[in-house]
Each structure stands twice: as structure tokens, then as C-alpha cells.
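Field reference: sequence -> structure
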Amino acid sequence: MNTGRIVNEKLFGKTELKSEKVELALMDNIKQRHKLLSQDKNRIISLTTEFFKQRRQLTDMLNLASETALVQQKDIASAESSLKELGIDNKILFQYKEMVDESLFEIKDAKNKI
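Structure field:
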């Protein structure tokens, strides 16, 4: 009987140690993942904040560029009218008019993307 008790103590003692090691390893894994997850969360918050800041700046820049292009468009129309009244060929303004049209298209496209 003494031998059976010794065998049981040895078996159950090792089993308890093994299960404690497994539980400790699981806890270590949980703590490590929690630390990584916390770092990821902080990085996501930082990137999200920066993203919205950049988005606001881009929106402001697009609005300013749009206003500038519209003023340029009016000035070109005025210049075309003046040149026509003077009998001067207004083809000189074509490149500017084309550039403004392209700019307005690009601005509108960019606004639709954000």
C-alpha cells in the first residue's frame, strides 16, 4: 500500500505542477497579448487623430484651390471679353482656361474621394 501511495503522490504531484505551468504560461501569454493590444490601440488612436487632422487640412486646401480657380475663371472670362472688344485674338488665354478647367476637375475628383 505504501508503494501505491508513493506512486499516486508522484503522479498527481507532477500533474499539478504541469497544470500550474500551463496556467502560468497561459497567463503570461494573456499578459503579453494585452500589452501588445494596448500598444496597437494607442497607435490606432494616434493614426486616426492624424488622419482626421490631415483630412481637414486637405479639405481646407481643396476649398481654397477651388475658390482660386473660380476667381481665375472669372478673370479669364473678363479678359476674353475685353480682348474681343479690342479686336485682339483671345487664343492667348486658351492655355490658362484649359489649366483652370483641369484644376477644377481634379479638385472636384479629390473632394469626391474624401
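Note: The chain has one domain: 2-113.
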